[in-house]
Amino acid sequence: MNHTPGIMTEPDLIQYREAAHLSGETRYIPDMELYRGTLTGYAVSSPHAKARLEHLDVSLARTSPGVAAVLTANDIPGPNTMAPVIDDEPCLLPEGGTCGYMGQVVCIIAADTLENAKKAASLIEWQWKVLDPVLTVEEAMKNEDFLFKPLRLKRGDPAHVMENAPFRKKGSLEAGGQEHYYFETQAAYAVPLHQGGLLIRSSTQNPTDNQRFATSLLGLKASDVEVQVGFLGGGFGGKQTQATWTVAWSALLAWKTKKPVLFIMERDQDFRLTGKRHPFKAHWEAGFDHQGRILALEISMSYDCGWCNDVSIAVLHHSLFHMDGAYYIPHIDSVLYGCRTNKPSNTAFRGFGVPQAISVIESVITQIAQTLGKDSANVRWKNYYGIRKNNRTPYNMLVEHNILRAAHRQIVQKSDYFGLRKKINAFNKKNTFKKQGLALVPGKFGISFNESFFNQAGALINIYRDGSVLIHHPGTEMGQGLHDKMRTVVHRELGVSTDFIRVADTSTSIIPNTTSTAASTGTDFSGAALKDACDKLKKRLNPIALKMMGLEKGKVVWENNTVSCKEAGTGVPFKELSFHSYMILESLSEKGFYKRENIGFNLDTMTGRPYWYYVMGSSVAHVELNLLTGQFRILDMWILHDCGEPVDKGIDMGQIHGAFMQGLGWCTLEKLITGKNGRLETYSLDNYKIPGIYELPENFHIELFQGNPEPLNIHNTRAIGEPPLIYALSVWLALQDARGTTLPIPATREELIKPLYNEE
Amino acid sequence: MDILRFYLNGDLREIDFSAKESPPLYCSVLHYLRKYEKLTGTKEVCGRGDCGACTVILASKDTVSGREKRFSVDSCLMRLPQLHGKHLLTIEAPDQYLNTRAVKKAFLKERASQCGFCSPGMVLSTYIHVKNQIPFNREDIQRSLSGNLCRCSGYQAIMDAALFLEKCPEIPGKKELPLAFPEPESKMLLFKQDDLVYVIPSTLQEFYRVRKTWPVARIAAGFTGSCMDYKSSVIDISHIPELTHVKVTDTHITLGAACNFETMKKELGSLFPYMMPYLDEFASLQVRNQATLGGNIADGSPVGDTMPLCLAHDAVFLVAGPHGTRSIEARRFTTGYRQVALKPGELILAVEFPRQDEDAFYFAHKQARRRNMDISSVSFVARVNLRGKTCRDIRLAYGGMAAVPTRSMNAERFLKGKIFSLNNCRKASALLEKDFTPLSDVRGSATYRMDVAKNMLLLLYESYTGNHD
Fold it and tell me: pTM, whole model, 2 decimals?
């Protein structure tokens, strides 16, 4: 459905997913061929950030030309809820209910055209009692309006140690949110099937949650609803829970009208309706010794979660478990508040709370260095997790395969960090309006879902009798190259060349009960499940292959499209084995399964093993800032990242580049502005700026750390999607270094010219 | 009523807007392609010329030289009738007309496509870079691709793919066939649909006539400012010869008002090289291929990046109307927030810039949140005429600091006759507070704008010393 080979017919190119992308042949949801009679869906939003819906009348809208259905909360057959974690999120705001943010959807319309749907929307009659919205975390903190009990992680006796520390420093940090700006907006296509079934084509990272809510809202069974996913035009976490909206609405409208309904969010609407990265305000105090070693740390962070829970509690847990960054902190107390505000409900975004936590701890380190007059790289060195001692996190997990100091040493050498430092000092002495800065930021990122039940995956491999292979796995392809990597995994396991392996679109009917393709776990989970299927297949087919070779037993090897026995010097082509197995009534289909057991943590003691392993690395940024304009150049950017043994180096490099650039947008460019009435003022690309090609570092040096395979993971690789985003913080800290002051996030040009007039 | 004629990927298209099922007269080229041609390779992302995902290639034929010219545009900012007489090429075009094979191969080699949504537009922008023989260095590639955003790749792979093309033996466009074009027509065109018209006069006289008939129709040339929002009748002035004329004499350079920004950059940039980087930061290549000088001025925007240029150069606008032509000095043109000195029925014919004085030093800076494709927070263009070290004459023109682009009279008065020094520039900057009380909006607070404006005078001096010492 997604990939129709056509114009690009060169055999060496056609097998690539990207070839279809480049030729414009990939069919994202807005590009699909639609069934006859397909209707267009449209959502009608609340015009207030906080208001009680006193009265709602859609009868006039229902009679508007071209309209097939106008649905309100009353028309939902099942329970009106679609909250992924805590039940506080209705699908449609019922009459009498109070809206949580400007944009919350009150009713949905299906019409022949979008124009007619919008016309009908203008005929809806409603009355609102407008209330004062809460728009800042300060207000929410003052009212103690939290979405869940504050999360706290404490080790040792920080208060006491702080009191006796040789040095103490207090600080604060404020960071804004970030719009995902996936290029394809939220979109779904719901098609009623015979026998009461429903097929939904969705642009989602989480087909099973889509299925779950379409099912419950309609009062159906999961087996009635199939969710299919082709290629997403970007996800970045924004289509993990947020994709459920268009799915739910199109499903409800299709169910009601018995017609296919296409629901594509318009860009402005997507901006205003869907959640973003969590903004926060943090206050901290550190006690440290004369070398900069942190003895005690107290951190309090208020997260702006928006109007409802969504996955905020999980984001905050992930954040909490990264408050230590890459550093061993013997006495630590961190408290995280999930504040309720009348804004879109903030959600998963590449990093899932980790970039926020790292920005705070790296601020702490930087300011300790400043206080002591030391280079911050040296202070980092003093604080890294040790290999044999000082190697347990505040939640008591052992930090294994620790390359923090090795990566630090290597990147200092590659970037000539200390030589550069001298040059920068000389440059800064000579120049009044231009200043250079330098910063080193390490990476340490835990991989897995903290909730243990999410850590599972199924897979299915079908071999056809012509020797071609079709693989099904639970992950979704959103540009991160997962399908390509999965093909490589199966290619390595079965020895079949990649042009004979095809990855099917993701479907809940083929792989049930999938976990969201999130937390950078796609390759880990799908790969391991596929390997399991391959192992089972080989176990069944090996005796048949031996028999075909005329052997009783022997060590069978699968490579180069041949199944062979090296010691006997003989083998059979994979194709023949496939055909023969079919002929002798042997199944050529096999399912696989993978689970990570014993992951999780004890909520009472806040200890445990929330992660399977850590991903680590290091980065150095060298910037030049113009103090008169706030414009800066990234002269050099070094990243040394550990992917273990990459399944596909090209893809992993692309993930590092892309994550860095997205992080750079968050740190320096992308600023969300909410007006006094709760209206998002930055709702389109002409007032919200994401990085362009001019923002590319002038010299971008990326290397993969060598010699540290991950034995716990498929093909010794490590997850890649999210961790490199935090290296962008080195640019942010290099800018602080250039100016000699602290900076909020994003450090926009407006922030970057501030010190000049402060000095005067 | 006329029939719209253009070629699409090698095939002639004739659209009769009065026919049932025909696309709306105000249909954007993007929606036409996706909805009516079912060519979905052209993607919609931002829908307002800010991302380049809908990039298409437009080819036109020079009526005199017969030479074919290809350039990129954002199809979301183009109306269907603007295609008249042209050849439109999309990512789906067959190889013999649009050979993107080498570009695609380079992108594949460098893994320069991730989710793929920006890829067709990115491929076409890279193609046009190669096709128009622009040098393969970072800065030029950045200029060519700065109108195309990508949210996945981080651009490095795209940059590497573009750089690789220099060494690529299979040069794109080598084996392309000449494109077909509809027969040229030098007459007025009138497209009509229900109550709406889209008129393309071919002479000034025709313009005056149709202006009388449709006095409230929107006058447009490039359409980049209002394509998305405006659904009423249009008079398209881009085909009037006087409006695209460029005249260079010993004393002046005169640019027709319908000259696009790329033409303006080329013509003005050759006389005033300092303008090149300033104009490069205006929108994107795609938009600069469409947007016109006159449109930017007549829009009456408080920022309008060309107005500070006109103010610093003491440019004069030649204005034509049914009662004849007249000149308006740049400083008298914008009369209020989005208000200009044009009378009903009038239009800007051309803009006249005096040639460079021997002793003039120029400086321009656009302060936005991002380097390009952004509306200025503050724009600044200065001219300093020096006699020795003394400032003989000076223009300090600002956009974004008031309801209209304005000169800072107090700062100018202060510096005139004084030694041009950092200290005096600093003193002059304090006087900006007397001239301006800027506003706060999403592009920056009032304080920020004032600080930037002040810094501009220091930057001006820095630039002067950098160039002269």
Answer: 0.96
Q: Specify the domain boundaries for CATH 3.30.365.10 within chain A.
A: 34-132+181-273, 280-450+603-759, 456-595
What are the b/e assignments for A721-752, b being 16+ CB within 10 Å?
A: bbbbbbbbbbbbbbbbbbbeeebbbbbbbbbb
Domain A456-595 has CATH 3.30.365.10: yes
What CATH number does the domain located at A280-450+603-759 have? 3.30.365.10
Residue type, B445: S
Residue B88 to residue A623: CA distance in whole angstroms: 43
Domain CATH code at residue B327? 3.30.390.50
DSSP reduced 3-state for A51: strand
Looking at residue B118, the DSSP 8-state letter turns out to be S
CB A344 within 8 A of CB A186: no
Residues found in chain A: 760
For residue B274, the enclosing domain spans: 242-468
Judged by DSSP in three states, A111 sits in strand
Q: Are B396 and B407 in contact (CB under 8 A)?
A: yes
Place of tokens 């889509």: A210
Burial (CB count <10 Å: 0-12, 13-18, 19+), residue B208 = middle
User: Among residues A592, A579, A485, which one has the least CA distance to residue A537?
Assistant: A592
How far apart, in whole angstroms, are the C-alpha atoms of residue B255 and residue B265?
11
| ipTM confidence score | 0.96
Catalytic residue among A477, A590, A722, A751: A722
Provide the residue type at B421 as one letter: S
B206 and B329 in a common domain? no
Distance of CA A36 to the CA centre of its chain: 36
Which residues of chain B does A658 touch, with a Cβ-Cβ cutoff of 8 Å?
114, 151-154
- A107, A56 in Cβ contact below 8 A? yes
Residue with the two structure tokens 């042949």:
A25
B155: contact with A, CB 8 A cutoff: yes
Q: How confident is the model at residue A83 (pLDDT cuts 50, 70, 90)?
A: confident
Give me the residue from A629, A673, A695 closest to B455, CB to CB: A629
Give the residue with greater pLDDT, A473 vs B174. A473
Q: Mean pLDDT of all residues in chain A?
A: 95
DSSP A405-418: HHHHHHHHHHHTHH
Of the candidate ranges A333-347, A566-580, B212-226, the one whose mean pLDDT is the lowest: B212-226
The answer to whether the beta carbons of residues B270 and B201 sit under 8 Å apart is: no
Task: Give the 3-state secondary structure of residue A387.
Answer: coil
Closest CA to A456 of A609, A590, A594: A594
Residues of B in Cβ contact (< 8 Å) with A695: 155, 370-371
**The two three-digit tokens of residue B94, written as one number:** 């067959």
DSSP-assigned letter for residue B187: S
Phi first, then psi: what are they for B193, rounded to 5°?
-150, 120
Residue type for B20, please?
A: K
Structure confidence by residue, pLDDT tens digits, A407-461: 999 999 999 999 999 999 999 999 999 999 999 999 999 999 988 899 999 999 9
Q: Taking the mean position of all CA atoms in its chain, how far away is CA A371?
A: 35
Nearest to A21 among B116, B141, B155 (CB): B116
Average pLDDT over residues B192-219: 94
Query: Given an 8 Å threshold on Cβ–Cβ distance, is A681 in contact with B442?
Result: yes
Tell me, what's the pLDDT at A3? 34
Residue A4, C-beta contacts closer than 8 angstroms, at least 6 positions apart: A20, A25, A27
Residues B15 and A697: their CA atoms lie apart, in Å, by 47
Residues B334 and B232 occupy one common structural domain: no
Q: pLDDT at residue A14 above 70?
A: no
Could you tell me whether strands A600-602 and A589-595 are parallel, antiparallel, or unpaired per DSSP bridges?
unpaired
Task: Please tell me the class of the A34-132+181-273 domain.
Answer: alpha beta
Q: Which residue of A has its CA nearest to B379?
A: A629
Does any CB of chain A come closer than 8 Å to the CB of residue B61? no
In this structure, what CATH number is given to the domain that contains residue B38? Answer: 3.10.20.30
